[in-house]
Amino acid sequence: MVFTDKINIVMHHSSQGMYKKNILSKSLNIEVFRSSIGVLLVFFLLVVGSRVVGYFEQAAEGNIDPGIILSVIALRFPDFITLLIPLSFFLGLLITIGRLNSEGEIHGYFSAGLSKFNLIKFLLPQAFIYFFITLVLSLYIAPYTKNLSKELLVIDSFEEQIDAIQSDEIVSLDDGGFLYVQTADEGLIKGVKLFQVDEDNSFIVISDELLTKEKDKTIELNLKNGSFYGGLFSESSKIISNFNNFNFEIDKNMSQSNDLSLTKLFDYSSASDQATFQWNISIPITILILLLYGIYISSSKPREGKFSFMLPGMLIYVSYLSLLILGREFISDNPSSIFNLWFIHGLFVLFLFLYVYREKIILVSFANLAIQENIYLRYLIGIMIFILFIWMVA
What we know:
six-stranded antiparallel sheet, alpha+beta, elongated
């Protein structure tokens, strides 16, 4: 009877321990989820806002139709979300652990017999959900919608743009000039003003009518009944002439502005299938590796702020992403190289291993002790983050 009572007591304490761990696990996952979603919404709105501004700038220059901007932005949503999920999850994790540290709630986890490894196990299911969502978006949905958006933006030939031109519209030319049309009705173009910039000469042509003829690599413009004004910015002689027919050839490809932010991230298009595939796989992989970093680096001393580790965390993320971008571009330029993006993931796993076991490695421990209280190191980290961010945006 006594033996049975002891067994019941042990089972009771064991069930209580499991129940407590389940509560802690649920609480931690909810907090991380809320923080991650909040960060994701903020960054998503910032990115979408920057893209809208960029597209409207192009529309103001006459490069794209303002009516397609919202459709293009909507088609880019999967691409934006794919790249923002790893950052949002990482920052949400750092914010949550920082709050638990500052309010002392983290000690409730450790007093229950949990370790940092247990926290990783608690958050691993949530990380895998983000992993599979990002994987599906990155491999299947985002490339498809991104190509659809490009099809809306890209006009295959100058002749198509001429056919689509409207009255009182300005069309930008590839080499710096523009074409203005006063009246366009059923393929009949009248009231044409053509301004062309050249290294040696610039001129304006004013014509009553415009006809086009497509060739292999150029489009021939036939202007009828007009005037030619040459040498506009030349210090030498200027030319003014009237004509009945004036033929002029331009390149078929139209200029398109690239003045959009974060082009290395959101507008990358690689000719190398290997580089594209490795990049699409690498984005989901970063979620799992950043989970490990988020748990192991998010510890602060009592006298430090609750988010004192945010700056090193951002340096890790920006460095990680920057190296992946550099590796992707290197693979694209050197398809036969043995280098691949898995080396970069392995490097960050190795760095994490050295950090976790730094106390057992004399050199790493000595270096950590030497820089631990150095405030200038934080300034250096901030400068490095700023430089890397400017490089990605430029």
